[in-house]
Amino acid sequence: MSKVSIVVPFYNCPYIDKALESLINQTYKNIEIIVVDDGSTLYSERIEPFLDKILFIEKENGGTASALNTGIKHATGDYICWLSSDDIFSPEKTEIQLHSMKRVNAPFSYTSYYCIDDNGEIITPIIGINPPTRLEFIKAMIRGNIINGCSVMIQREVFEQIGFFDEALLYTHDYDLWLRIMQNFKFHFVPQPLLQYRIHTQMGSKRFAGSIKKENRLVINRHHAKMKKLLIAELKKQ
After folding, report:
1. Where is each Glycosyltransferase 2-like domain found (predicted)?
2. 10, β-bridge pairs
3. Taking the domains of the chain in order of start, what are their residue ranges?
4. What is the mean pLDDT of each run of 10 residues along the chain (238 residues)?
């Protein structure tokens, strides 16, 4: 029975207890929950009721990529995923996603999701982009990130081959990792909405929109040559 490690980076987030409740209530039970406190000064008391069910790691503040890398390096699972401390996994996420990956022997998968508000109410239809071919997927990823990072599940071996998140990237470390992974591995899409992505005023994607846009361009430029080569190779298969 495969083990799944779920890393939760935590920094001053008031929704952390909701995130952890969603992990404790997963229908798939062979999981380990790793919470990485990235130098928080607020809301740590909301983790206390869960301490006997999680691995809790404290570190100096270093950003999300640093917290994720710390958690992944402590993980002992065969598969790894993560959850932002303001988001929620559907109860069946781990079970459905793992089964789907094993069925097609996929090393990497991502799912559809809903957006929720401050109160946990669903405020959008199902969101999920699944280009019909590998060629269209490459084209879409060259233009921008179509994958919600908290919907992802990855085999441990992928990190061993590709490496970890780039800690110099404050906002687009996930997009950078996807572009590195897809040069060696195929991605699998799970259509069920298995994540609830919270929209609120303090979320980073709202507060730092300008910086994120600039960093996105940096990542695209960094991988331009290799992605172009990947695109040409796929075109030749047509």
Report:
1. 5-162
2. 37
3. 4-236
4. 98 98 99 99 98 98 98 99 98 99 98 97 98 97 97 98 98 98 97 97 73 94 96 93
